[in-house]
Protein: Ycf21
Organism: Pleonosporium borreri
Amino acid sequence: MKLFNSIFLLKIKHYDTQSLKLIPIEWQMVLFNEGSFTQNLTILTGSKINIKMKQKYNYISKKKNIRNLRYVWLENSIYTKLTFAQSLWIFKYKDELYQQLKYSQPIGQLLINTEQDVCKQILEIYYGYCQYIEKYFKINQPIWGRKCLLYTNYKTYAIIQEFFSPYIINFCSLK
């Protein structure tokens, strides 16, 4: 996100235990989880998570790859925005996953439905400000985010950026 101003940026390839100490344990649980975030959020909140597709673009690159940009908000059942995610999907051809991507469903569920064997790698963790996202979270404070890579057979399928509402931590009680 171009309007995101980082206070803290941790590139996962180069992190050390000192860097991890800068991230509160509750946020480590959220940020370093490699499973389906929507499913984990459903468990944390105890309610259904709604997916609101904000925008979606398709275009074909000069290399004839199909690129799909997807922007979504994850909300709880009372419409509190908990996460903003943007993803860039890269396809060589219009496979079943490409066809299904148009629906407002969690990425994890989409991969299960299309029987895709995909690996997830967390690339970056960041903490900072973004007026656009803060406005929708109804806060005026820094937010945590991460960048992930989805790949299959050593080929990139998608790059995902997620930004998390500080409200999520209310569900992560460690006491």
